[in-house]
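assembly run, all chains below
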Amino acid sequence: MSTQPVNVATQKLPDMRYERHAGVPRQTDVSKALAHAAHPVLGNSSSEPVNVNEFEELARLALPNMYYDYYAGGAEDEHTLRENMQAFHRITIRPRVLVDVSQVDMSTTILGYPISAPILVAPTAAHKLAIPEGELATARAAAAAKTIMVLSYSSSCSIEEVASSCNAVRFFQLYIFKRRDISALLAQRAERHGYKAIVLTADTPRLGRREADIKNKMIYPPEKNLEGLISINIQCVDQGSKLETFANQMMDASLRWEDIRWLRSITSLPILIKGILTHEDATRAVEAGVDGIIVSNHGARQLDFSPAPVSVLEEVVDAVKGKVPVLLDGGVRRGTDVFKALALGAQAVLIGRPVLFGLAAKGEGGVRTVLEMLKNELETSMALAGCPCIKDITRSHVRTEHDRLPSML
Ligand SMILES: Cc1cc2nc3c(=O)[nH]c(=O)nc-3n(C[C@H](O)[C@H](O)[C@H](O)COP(=O)(O)O)c2cc1C
Ligand SMILES: CCCCC(=O)C(=O)O
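ok done. output:
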């Protein structure tokens, strides 16, 4: 890893973030680390993770530093990365009692497709950095949990391989490249292989500054889905993140709202737009005729100091006025987070890093456990808040900072 400063602050004050992985053990040491985690007094307490947050440390132990940093990192000072989770912590739940919750039903639908709970798998790149089976394992885990996986265009298993991995409803995430013909080809391959929607990621005209990747001179695996389609000559290979260089050469930074029409013309699939954070853009998205909106800041990897998605969810929901479904991702780590997002008007949430950490720590079974843990927590939250079904979760079940403010004046 380079020790050159990558920002002004680190010139004066070395950022300990880059020190913490020094001498990190590899996969073989995970079991030893788990053994050490036994309770000092009770001794034999279980060292298996009991919540999805605990998978992160296991993943850190299992992964080479460069890959852990790529998965975990956010943009610049990582203010938004922390905020994505903290914004959930500022919302409280207003439970109702003496409601019959002997049966709790978390099932719902997205674009008409039934899922067991409103928790989807967000598109994340390069799952083979976690384990050799890559997205095939993730796809099987999502199918076992009866939910929808959104496959990243930048998957390390191809669109076709994932399509034939198992029978399940899947969506495909697309970027629009300068080479429109390549984006069109990807969308058409996805449609031909049974993916049910296109998720257009709109927040990446260029890549955000992920300083850990810059320090690590992040090496990015070859793009499986672009095999045979393009050969990119990455300039300045000795400097910074290769992913950033690659992405900035590929992305069409001139993309505009008018171009949604072009996307419509090359696919008959529904289009969800991912990366909306304001009511202005939510209104434009509806006007542009999209079929759904994902409130997202790309897991805080693009613009630092962009708002936490859950803090702007209601603004977007109000602008959309029920015309299309609104989903959310970013910082969802607990069933209570899912509950809060639903109460503020999201139809479902997506999870990114917990899936990657589950995959790196324990393969397909790890992803299955992550999804099951969140579902179990959501079920408990619904029971304890007095909501037997998803539609019973309403705005009056949460209290936000905005709600608190008037009472303080
Ligand atoms: C390692 C990593 C790779 C990602 N790759 C993509 C991608 O290829 N396309 C995309 O639209 N979003 C990508 N994202 C963003 C996720 O779809 C999602 O918005 C984010 O991870 C949600 O936040 P969370 O990780 O806190 O759950 C990526 C996120 C991570 C952490
Ligand atoms: C070209 C970028 C693909 C991966 C990505 O979106 C991310 O790392 O956040």
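The two ends are 51 Å apart (CA to CA).

The chain has a mean pLDDT of 90.

not gonna interpret more than that til we talk
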